[in-house]
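Ticket closed. Logging final result for Cellulose synthase.
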Amino acid sequence: MRRSNSSDSFEYTTGPSHRPSNRPEREKTYESIEPNYRDRPPRPSKPPSITTTNRSKTNHNVHSWSRTNNSAPPSNASSFSRPDHARAHDELPSRPSTLNIRSEISRIRAELRQLELEESKSPSEMAELTSLYELQLRKMIHEQVPEDSSIHEFIHPEDTIRPPSRPVKNRAPPPPEQAPSVSTRVSTSNPQNSTKPTPKVRSRQASNKPTSQEPSTQARQRKKIKNEIDDLPPATGKPWIDAAGIERMALEDDGEDWSHFKNFVMDDTPAPEASIPVPKVLYKPTNYIYQFLYIFYLISLLAYIYVRLTFTLDAPGLNRIYCVLVAILEISTCPSLIIQGMTMWKWTSRDEPSLSAFERPKFHTIRVMIPTYNEPLEVVAGTLHEVMHMDVPNGLHLHIYVLDDGKRANLEEYILGRRTKKYVFLHYIARPKLPGVPHHAKAGNINHTLRFIYDRAEAKGEAVVVFDADFMPRRNYLWRVLPVFSEKRDRPIGLVQTPQFFYNVNADEDVWDHLNVSFFHRIEPSLDQWSAVNCCGTNFTVRADALKSVGYFPVGCLTEDTLLSLRLCTEGWAVSYHHEVLAIGQSPHEITEIFKQRSRWCKGNLQIFLDDFPLTQAGLTMSQRIFYSSCGYNYFCAAISIPFFQLVPSWAIFFGLWPVSEIGLEFAFTFLVYYTLGNLLLLYPPPGFQIKDMWNGELASTNLWYTYFNGVRRIVGVKLTQGRGELTFKATKKKAEGDDDDDSGVGFQKEDVRACYMHFIMFFLMLITILYAIIKAIIARSVKFYYYYMYMIGMGWSLINIIPYFIVVIYCWYRTRIPGIMCAILRNVQLLLRGACAILLLIQAFTTRNLTETFICPHPYSATIGTDRLTMIRTLDDVTGKEIERNTFWLLGMKDDFYTIQQIKQSACEDSSVPVVVFYMAPRTGLVLDEQASHYMPPDRLPTWEEYDAKIEEYGEALSEVPIMLILEPSFLMHTFNSENEYHAADYQLSFTQRVDSIIRKFPKAWTYVDAGNALYLQWAVNMDHIVDVLQQMPVGLRGFAMNVGSFVNSTYNMQLASELHCQTGLNYVIDTSRNGGIFSDRSMDEINECTYDPPYISRGAIPGYGPGSKKAINRVDTDLKVDNDYDDYYGDYYYSEYYRKRRSTVPTRHRRQEYEYEEYGYDYYAQYDPAVLECLSNEIEKGHDANSWVKTPGEGDGRLFASGTYHECLLEHTIECDDTCPAYVPKINGEFAREKMCTCDPDELLDYSYDEDVNY
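Final structure:
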């Protein structure tokens, strides 16, 4: 139906109706609504002259019915009951109108019937009168029809009360070579335009020759009308003015070339596209392999979730939040695959229909809807041709409705020129579109016709079939689909969906998954057993009464087809799926059209999920609630999880954010099993298909995540701002056969790059990640620790993730396609990389490449302390992610010490080197510190001494067999082990001694040292005497002590103090030379003491290495051995004795590389008081030096300029002094350090100071 351009009318086009005589009920129905023409005034026997301004093309048995404000509908249009909302169009202001075809045909019908009833005309006179009417109608519609055509061939038989006494047989379709060209207008005034002979009508009336009694007046009138037709202007392709003053346009100006359709449009030759081979659906009675995989997948999923939540979330700081977020996303995506596995537990298959399937048919009328909106006429013509020539079972009437939402005159004229076979009726409908009234796109287009048909008519016994304008059905469509409605189920079947297939898609190049094998051949057949099939908008058949019960097609939703399935199920109908390709269509190839189509699918399913929420819909079974809810939920997951997981390797490599806190054997094994089974389920092909078809679907989902993300953003935004808003439906562009996809050749086009800009961004980001990982791995090639191997794993996953985006780049270059061989290579590479990365995790778990705590060195540790080199490692800073060089491994008593332990074990095993390990643990309770000493202490240290002891036990179990140099930090463990009212109490010192003894026993292969403080502390005699006293009480087995570099004092003075302690205790020592190589170390003690946190002008000191003392063994027989002292009475008065407050002096101008000298005091500095002499226990003072070590990390912050423990390269040789702007102790505000922005070292101001690596001190 369409609105006429010349008047306020709606035009219908319909073909002949052939109602069987054995259906009196149906005939009675039509007869009951037949307009009563007997009530009208009698018509004159001589037909009046006819004029018209509405040029329509008719051909034999197709007619244009029109309805004006003053005419009644024909009797066969009883189903076109006009709803109230459509009547509003009649009230629009009218324009000048003329007599239209519909009114004239009604008048002619009444005239012929009246003459026939009166029997006042002979058969020859009736034939002549009928021929005269035909000529008048030809003139009215300005078209040529064969002279021997009968008026009964284009007057609907149902428009008469009873058929004529001598019915005319249907005209047989002409042979292909006699079919007139559609694009050429045939005119009697131009015989040369018609090169084909006019086919003859096989009708009894047309074959009778005129009798000798032919009235001369009628013959003259007929000749006059023919002459008038001959005088009409020929078709010139340009506008011309007819006799009524109306501007006309010739048919050649339609702009479409129909010449290549002339061989099959008028006969039953199949369209070439409809004849291509389609996938043959193979049925399997059992699905045991998939069921086995699915069961084990569920078990592995539960195990993986348990391991993931138990062993991989205890990361420190922000990394823990990141680990938790990744775990949440992983678990949230699991329901998609679980639901898919449930649907595929059993595949539904049905046998071919038997010969008796139509003995008791469920339907007597099938109405085919072909909605179209600006598709090329060639596309619509192909679909219409195949629908018209479908095999119709006996007893069925087939009505075909071309629903033109674009109101194209050339499409209408083409349809008016088609012939149909018996019991097949063709209709053209163009609905009115009132300004300001929502049109609801495709759903509104179909609903407009359905309301005219069924609002005031019975829908029982009829079915509605919907084909998109680009889908051509197979000839046996009705024979295969209609028997499905007779199956016995718990609910009556209301809708049957069939698969989609595309003739312009190559399966090897289907990177956008147009064929959608996973959905149409795997998921949908499985959903059939649950009656939860999704309607896909085309190639489906629905019962008319079921459709009417849900109010026809839902409107306001972009995926009205899916919503229709849901509403049918809520009303108690079943939705079935016939797994057989019965229609072939055309898919879009332009990237913009692909994104538009998939965006519409995403938004529509999200609308259903948010607005209708199937989980709470009444009338649905639990399985239907789950399956219909999963449609929208899957789009949510894909839009968020896909880009997040693809960026995980980049975040890990660039920022050090790892998705798990540790990779143990439990995680590696469960992840391998879970990941492998999940991929097998996703790539498991249905019978008759291959893995590549499944991979195409996964590839398309990956490349469409940004489209889904925009859809989620739009729908959620509309939901939040408008509640239940309606979005605009945008039809997908289709190509005609003559359109060339490759007319512009290869190369990037601006519109393609603009549409895929996010894919290009992700591609280059992945590429940079891969290159960065390779460069870092090459730089760190001598390092065999955790981060090095994580570079390799991250690079592997980045290679997996970059392949989909690389395919999009290639697709944009080749313009609408990608070579199949290239796609196959990339597919195989990605699948191999998936398996390689998953297996690599498991291999590393067993070989400690992934540094698990189950590391077992394949051979005994062969490194010897004092002989084999000290370990030097390159690793990443946890905060900045920068690679730094370290000599020591710090165990801080925190949960992330796991990786450090693995590095210690692996370096000692594979490098045969000696790791230097620092235990830095200071419980928050049991220590009394002054404000300055605790200013930069980490707040997350161990809370109690009990936990301290537990940590020592844990470290001992992991490192008891590893040869290491172990330093116990910090120094105040020995001199502030106290309570609030006691200082240097003997019982606390005894407790410390006992803990040291426990540590020595737990690490029998280690050389253990205790921190003796730094030069700023030891310069006071009272502190020196206290440290000597504590060291002399240390248990047997303690190797010595360590001189801390916290004061940044030069090595000369550090060596002086260390040698004096060695003299008094007999213990060897290690000196920290990590940051005392700059000119800052040449300052006086007072100057150094004023800026002991992140001081300026510092650089690395002597490189780590052994000293002469490392060759000597320590044999202490008595732990109570000490220097005799006659001043025991003064022992408790350390703080008040001026003697013990005397400070040792240094020479500020002496260079750090000169040999050290003793200034004011010698070894026996008590001698000047002459009460007694303290003897030196060591006779080889120069051999007490075990090693130099970088106990601290050069460039590691102390807390003044940057957070304590973080690495910043500019901290070496910066120039920022400690002053009022950048004080040594940064003030805290609400517990947070308030550092000034200007107190940040500038790398441009760094001074280049070097040190002599060949000098050992």
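The chain has a mean pLDDT of 72. No further action required.
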